[in-house]
């Protein structure tokens, strides 16, 4: 085996080693990329979970604000009815029957309808926040699953790089053996 043969074998071996190193680096990069993508997805899912919790708090707040507004409105109606009765009494009208009673009844009835409207509007607002929270939680769940899938894709790519490395090593060994055999002849 001459110097030329030794150089050819050395260059072929170096080429194989370089190729294997590149494939090993691809494997590491694929694994790392999958891990980082999963971490990013998990972080994004945590933000979505936080936003869902905020929407839950907004729903609770809407109900509480609605209850307060409803109570305040009912107090106003009672005050209005009291003022009406006082006005009738000041006019020397008996407030226990007839028109004063009808006016008080109508004011109470209409006031109750308005109070119930306030309650219904608060419930609708809360429902909107609850729907939003549910949607956000679903998006967080999907994001987590996407992160797992991206991590698995990184593992598949790393496995493919392993197989490519094995193929390069086997193919390179075969080439080296063929070269050596051919050079011996």
Task: Tag the structure with descriptive keywords.
mainly alpha, 94% helix, rod-shaped, 185 residues
Number of helical runs? 2
* Helix content estimate: over 70%
Overall number of domains: 1
Radius of gyration equals: 40 Å
Shape: rod-shaped
Distance from first to last alpha carbon: 10 Å
Number of strands: 0
How many strands, what sense, and barrel or not for the largest sheet?
none
Strand portion = under 5%
What can you see in these coordinates?
The structure is a single chain. With 185 residues, the protein is mostly helical. The protein has one domain. Helices cover 94% and strands 0% of the residues. The chain contains two helices and no strands. The protein is rod-shaped and about 135 Å long. The relative contact order is 0.18.
In short:
The protein is an all-alpha fold. The chain has one domain.
Chart the SSEs and their pairings.
Elements: H1 3-90, H2 99-184
């Amino acid at each position: 085996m001459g110097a030329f043969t030794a150089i050819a074998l050395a260059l072929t071996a170096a080429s194989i080693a370089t190729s294997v190193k590149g494939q090993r680096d691809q494997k590491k990069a694929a694994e790392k990329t999958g891990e980082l993508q999963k971490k990013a997805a998990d972080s994004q899912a945590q933000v979505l979970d936080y936003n869902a919790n905020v929407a839950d708090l907004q729903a609770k707040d809407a109900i509480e604000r609605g209850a307060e507004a409803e109570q305040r409105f009912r107090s106003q109606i009672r005050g209005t009815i009291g003022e009406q009765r006082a006005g009738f009494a000041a006019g020397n009208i008996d407030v226990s029957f007839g028109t004063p009673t009808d006016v008080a009844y109508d004011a109470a009835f209409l006031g109750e309808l308005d109070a119930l409207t306030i309650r219904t509007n608060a419930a609708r607002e809360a429902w909107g926040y609850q729907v939003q929270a549910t949607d956000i939680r679903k998006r967080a769940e999907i994001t987590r699953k996407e992160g797992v899938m991206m991590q698995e894709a990184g593992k598949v790519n790393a496995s493919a790089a392993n197989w490519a490395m094995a193929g390069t090593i086997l193919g390179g060994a075969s080439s080296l053996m063929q070269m050596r055999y051919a050079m011996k002849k």
